[in-house]
Recover the amino acids of this structure.
């Protein structure tokens, strides 16, 4: 049983310097998998407006909106990762990526 705890601690230790990048990757993957859903809702909301307005809103949301979401939400995701007990942190990150892979497969992105 001691070797399991040692392996879990080693996995967490390997990930420790990269929590910011891991948080950013999680958010970016969520945006890739569900970005089309967000864009469909936005498209539905702005469809009655003129082409120039629709294009401007789309560019602003995709370029600046998603970018700001990534920049401002990454520290919160990192804090959430750090909230997980140290022993299970590495396994939790791996499970999150497996879940995101499953969700991408379910939405036929893979």
């Amino acid at each position: 049983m001691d070797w399991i705890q040692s392996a879990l601690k080693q996995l967490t230790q390997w990930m420790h310097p990269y929590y910011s990048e891991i948080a950013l990757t999680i958010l970016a993957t969520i945006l890739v998998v569900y970005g089309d859903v967000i864009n469909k809702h936005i498209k539905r909301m702005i469809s009655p407006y003129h082409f120039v307005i629709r294009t401007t809103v789309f560019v602003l949301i995709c370029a600046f909106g998603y970018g700001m979401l990534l920049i401002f939400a990454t520290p919160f995701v990192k804090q959430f990762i750090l909230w997980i007990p140290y022993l299970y942190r590495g396994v939790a990150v791996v499970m999150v990526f497996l879940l995101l892979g499953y969700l991408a497969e379910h939405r036929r992105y893979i």
Notes: The mean pLDDT is 92.
